[in-house]
Amino acid sequence: MSAAYDVIGSRVPRKDAAPKATGQAVFIEDLRFKGELAGALLQSPHAHALIKSIDVSKAKALPGVVEVITAADVPRVKYGVSPARYDEDLFAVNKVRYVGDEIAAVAAEDLETALKAAALIKVEYEPLPRLLSVEEATAEGAPWIHDEFPNNVCAEVHQEFGDVATAFKECDLIQEGRFVSKRQDAAFIEPNQCVAIYGQDGMLTLHSSTQVPHYVQRTVSMVTGLPMSKVRVVKPYVGGGFGPKAAATPIDLAASFLALRSGRPVRMAYTREQVFSFGRARHGFTHEMKIGVKKDGSLMALEHRATLDGGAYSSFGIATVYYAGSLLGGPYKLPNMKYDGRRIYTNKPACGAQRGHGGVIARALFEQQLDIIAERLGMDPVELRLQNMMETGDVTCNDLAMSSLGMRQCIEAVAQGSGWKQKKGALPKGKGIGIACGFFVSGAGYPIYRSETYHCTVTIKADEDGGGVKVFTAAAEIGQGSDTTMAIIAAEALGIPYDMVRIESGDTDFGIDLGAYSSRTTLMTGHATKEAAENLKEVILGELAGELGIDRRRLDIKRGLVKIAGEAVDIAPLRVRYQKEHRGWLSQPEGGQLTFNEASRLACLRRGTLVATGKYKPPVLGGKFKGAAVGTSPAYGCSAQVAEVSVDMETGQITVERVTDAHDCGQAINLTSVEAQMQGSVAMGLGEALFEEVKFDEAGRVMNPSLGEYHIPTIMDMPAVDCIVVESGEPNGPFGAKEVGEGAIMPTIPAILNAVRDAVGLTIDETPLTPERIYMALKKAK
Amino acid sequence: MLLPSFTYHRPGGLAEALAMLDGFGGQAKLLAGGTDLLVNMKHGKQAPAQLIDLDGLAELKASGSRGDALELGAGLKAAAIAGGLGGAAPQALAQGAGALGSPQVRNRASLGGNLVTARPAADMCVPLLALGARVALVSPAGERQVDLPEFFLGPGLTALHPSEVLTRVLLAKPRPGEGSGYGKLGLRKALEIPLVNVAAWLALEADGKTIKEARVALGAAAPTPMLSPGAAKALAGATAGDDAFAAAAFAAAADARPIDDHRGSAEYRRDMVAALTKRCLGQALAQARGN
Amino acid sequence: MSAHILKLKVNGREYQALVSANHTLAQVLRENLGLTGTKQGCQVGDCGSCTVLLDGEPVNSCLVLGVQAESREVLTIEGLAEGNKLHPLQDSFVRAGAIQCGFCSPGMILSAKALLERKPSPGLDDIRQGLAGNLCRCTGYQKIVEAVMQASHRMSGEASS
Predict the structure, then answer these.
(1) In terms of CATH architecture, what is C88-160?
(2) ipTM of this predicted structure
């Protein structure tokens, strides 16, 4: 497929790689502004308490302190992620709901003073009963964490597609299972940080380590009351996001207020400990599933219940609880599905979105159950999956349209690549092999707030000398490689070499872009970039056609050269004009074809600066039922993985020896980046499967708020990952492309679970698969 | 994260360091590798007014042998010890030092610091205990030597007086017919504090089969690194091999007094003491037999 | 509280700076010397982002006091390239796709530099051991391993040619 393209599908180096390799790349902590103040938060030490009084007098009196603000000093504007659940106040109003809830913020001449001042704020609390688990929060007589949400139910979902009860009656085999997972932390290596600057011109500029400049801009505007046109959000290079950086943070908002009041730049940063106590990453899930199949292995029905321990606020949680159900609609043919989900408020940091939003643990249990079903039916797990697999063009029972689906190729590729046939059932005790599949949206079908807005706009401007173009997009390069992706798409669409494209991104001044979440950027911003590049090409070729006096349709640009179809055209006059402008230049265009430089320069001479724009929003998608929007997408990425593990039967330690991974990304824009996303997904999934768990003590404090005690995989823990890139050609994607960033994590946990089950002969129903959990299961089974 | 304020001192030698320590009367802390102390200070757990930096003192970095004894300077870095000190470091100690933290941490963390911090599962403490090490504690009044079992008093608590500096670790030079081994269990394969760790040392009789003497040390099994008397007893005089090692493992698990905490349960830790004891003894035996 | 005039060599150049005793080497490099390529991910020695080479050995500069670098040599990520010519490790990281968000990259590359100094032709295990103190959340490490391998081949090729 890639043969048709000049830049797409290649392995060009990323635009940001060299600056990042040399230390030149600017991250938020590298930006410095004149007269910066340091901000600090006062956060609640209680998980649940009423605030009786706040006395800031001592803090204000401390020399070097410039501003001290509490809820009394800012407008009462509730905010959050989903407008349906704006349940957060920047500063606690009468009540704190988790250890870390924000009470006040200080700006001072230096951080030491700011921290000292925050500690001098005196708060009188009246502790309330702490609700640290779903059980406690839903117990009879439990206090309500939010008065507006009875019984601590943040959200409930009840959906049924088809007729599950009838379907179960027709099934030959019913398999039931339960799974419990733990709260995660995204553990991006760069902690959140921001600098807010309020200028004399009335403009608030917020530099922030965020995935979503646009949503941050909206939230800052809404909460401060400044019009959106007076709020600019700029994202420097960001040291990873993975979900929790996909919304405005309390420090974004507090720094904005402190800057507005002081008129000086205010920097606020989370320590690593604060990153943990802010949370917003993967929920802890409890899933129960009942799956019915026919003797021949045909999946008939799924009855699914999920409970999410949400923490003190909603964050992305409404979407999460919907995703937890909707993403089981595929990739297998499943005619009947019933889902009951609820998200419960507890007195812990809010959970939100993380790579594979909402679907990862549901997928883990479902794929584990498929293996048990295969075993009970005497089928090979690969065969069972292939038998039920959807094909391109299929629509799930909950109205998700698989406009391209290379799932079958993925399964076959990993089965072959891993040597599945030789290994499955033939490995000694303690060694195991497991397979799993998964799919994910290639961009949420709708914005987080209800709007008809374009999801992204892109502007491309031609350099006036004709030497290249510059892409302006508000899309968020957070390490996933979107700058490079857009540059490649622009180069391909314009027909010029990659080196001729420069890019600037992550600034709300550049247009609208909903940001880096829901694995959306390649498809959506890619469309807008492609359109902008095509429009620019149209302008250039239109001018050239006019100059040459020929039909525009005879012209095209390929590899930086102008192709003229049909009879020969004398280009000499144009070339002479170009050369005359460049007397003294050593390099001059040569050869029988006009260059892009000449054409673009000529167009500039005729039209002035050349700018073209592109835009994208998905068509109306999905069904009419409540919650139908969540899970809809113009396309779905999908993948299969085979994990091979060895288990130390004496200690319970698991080593993942190898992962064979195939992902259908529609069309690789940059092959290296696709593999990189696949490998990174496996690492995150492996960490979640084996190690990761945010733990709380009885007072609701995070017990392991460090990268030493919250265990993400080190290089020593990672197996070789064999990547197989499948390209199904997505009709709704730019150049056939769709996502890889999030979908690639979906099979990892269940592939490991199934491999461990194969190795030790036990079904483990709880992550992480710590040595202790495995050992104790083995001991109990003896 | 900021370090609290302090006054920094860089003594030119041990004598000067001791004089400073004495002069500050409990207000000072000794800074060695800083991998524990500076972290504690950043977390506000410690805020000494004075820091006396021992890191540059060459006299604390020497290692050498005196007769049958091996002397290791307290300032030696974990990285150097992990590298074997030119073959002088006993196997279990080199393994323990090599299992500590990460390369960056090992380049800073010192032998003395690891001992003085006295975590119940410190990667160098447990092997040193199995190796029968003593520590030399020097004060202006002179030097005293303390056996490790008497040195460790509790988590973070040692027999070191406020006026003393731990200068050297003394242990018997490895001899033919002896061997040692170290094992550590954690979640990850690097950057880990042990969930359980065990070190074993044994000496064989001339027959190459009978165990003359053995010691098994356990980490995260008690408030301090501890020796298992039961394991030593089970091994002394026994024929080296699976049966004796299983008996020693059983005895070590019985001696262990682990607790339940968020890192692991007491039951699991106890069982892992047994599993690791067997493995460490296996390594020790292999070394003793020259394999 | 004490302040000290610190003399040290960074990336081959002699520096003098007035530093507070309680400022870490990472702070001194970033704030006094403007060498912001050294990243701070955790500040307590858990992540390795702030890795610099102190007399050739990788250390977490968040756990070294600035004053402890007195009269010593520090190599930061800014000292690796020669003018516009990337160091082979940097170049391999770029080409292999070993860089995503890039926050761990400076520390990772410096750990790799120390490794290749010690072991010019490392095996897979050597690389894993050598980079065990540098956390990366983006890459899964595989392309990092490949980059170090490639750099080692190129550097030994250059050395023998």
Answers:
(1) Orthogonal Bundle (1.10)
(2) 0.98
In a domain, residue B18? The reply is yes
Q: Average pLDDT for residues A691-718, to the nearest whole number?
A: 98
Range list of β-strands (E), B17-164: 28-31, 50-53, 63-66, 69-73, 134-139, 142-147, 152-154, 157-158
- Residue B259, min C-alpha distance to chain C (Å): 25
Q: Is the per-residue pLDDT at B228 higher than 50?
A: yes
* Structural class in CATH, domain A31-128+189-240+245-278: alpha beta
pLDDT at A1 over 60: no
CATH number of the domain at A2-25+454-616, please? Answer: 3.30.365.10
Query: Which pLDDT belongs to residue C157?
Result: 82
Domains A2-25+454-616 and A31-128+189-240+245-278 equal at CATH topology level: no
List Cβ<8 Å contacts ≥24 apart for A224-227: A224/A75, A224/A253, A224/A256, A224/A257, A224/A260, A225/A75, A225/A77, A226/A260
Chain B residues with CB-CB distance to C24 below 8 A: 3, 38
- The answer to whether the CB of A98 falls within 8 A of the CB of A700 is yes
- Tens digit of pLDDT for each residue in A463-519? 999 999 999 999 999 999 999 999 999 999 999 999 999 999 999 999 999 999 999
Task: Select from B268, B270, B273, B278 the residue whose CB has the most chain A CBs within 10 Å, as the one to mutate to test that interface.
Answer: B268
Q: Do B7 and C2 touch (CB under 8 A)?
A: yes
Q: Which helix (H) or strand (E) holds A469?
A: strand A469-473
**Beta-carbon separation of A481 and C102 below 8 A:** no
Tokens 């050349």 -> residue:
A610
DSSP secondary structure code for residue B76 in this structure: -
pLDDT, one tens digit per residue, over A231-266 is 999 999 999 999 999 999 999 999 999 999 999 999
For residue A162, pLDDT over 60 is answered with yes
Interchain pair C111, B191: CB under 8 A? no
Chain C within 8 Å of B153 (Cβ-Cβ)? no
- Grouping H, G, I as helix, E, B as strand and the rest as coil, residue A519 is coil
